[in-house]
Amino acid sequence: MKWQLAVPTMMVALLALAAGRSYHAAGAQEPKAQEPGAQALATDKVLLSDVCSAWQAAFNSHDARALAANYDEGALVRFAVADPMEGRQLSGTASIEREWSDYFAKNPNVKTKISVTTVRHIKPDVAVVDGEWEEEGHTERGLAKKGFFMEVFIKKRGKWHVCDECSYVPIKK
Fold it and tell me: Which domains are assigned to the chain?
């Protein structure tokens, strides 16, 4: 059944194309992508860090609308909770704003601190940001107090927006 071997190869090709990369059969040379200049990448890293800082400031002032403004309209967000099997997934800025508004109403003293650990450019207008978060001041019980996050940013009309976000808590060993 030769088609069984073709399916994984096709999946790799589709995933590579979705990520903006080209896929070539084994042994073929992949053409070099034109890299953005070092100055542009450095500027974008600063801009991405600024977006993360603005996100933290909006969170700490409990401004759900300002938080949602950091996301692309079709953004997908997955939240961590103490039990990873009970995480939540949101789609779109309206549901993101509602979720944060509810969260702040239930946790009026919550504050966060985030730190960006890496910024990787996938394409000139796509970047992945990894970091750590830590919260204090929860009123609700059972909420995670610290963890990691990964955000995929897209650049539209010169501005970076989160299009995919996943926060997660460390797994206890």
Answer: 1-32 (no CATH), 38-168 (3.10.450.50)
